[in-house]
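Quick one: structure tokens for this chain, please?
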Amino acid sequence: MNNEIFDAIYNGLSAFLTENNKSCYSAKICSMPPANPTYPLVMFDEVRNVKSGHSFGEIPDKVSSLGYQADIYGKAKGTSNRRTVARAVATVVDSYLSDFVGLHRMSFNVTPVEAGGELYRITIMYDKKIYENKKSLIN
């Protein structure tokens, strides 16, 4: 896991959700399951980090393939149903991660949730390469 890159993305996403709290129903974000969750909720974590060595000239570059996962849980809020809430939050999350960070969205799936039918879950997977030597994402 690359903590510097993860922390930068996580903190940026958290700030972006706060800035856009009206359009994402004041969604909360965490990287570990909370003891007492409030909804809507975004669970965000790095789920893959595969290192490989590449050489571009005389200096060997270390490039990793990173994978991130955002699980968005929506619950009915006011007159909005759980699906509407989850999709609104997913739109804000995807906007930040795709447009501002430059992560590549690999999948966008609805996943069944066992919670008395109150929750709607969307899982979005992202992919990105990073230069380990330079600690920077590759566009």
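Helices lie at 3-19, 82-101.
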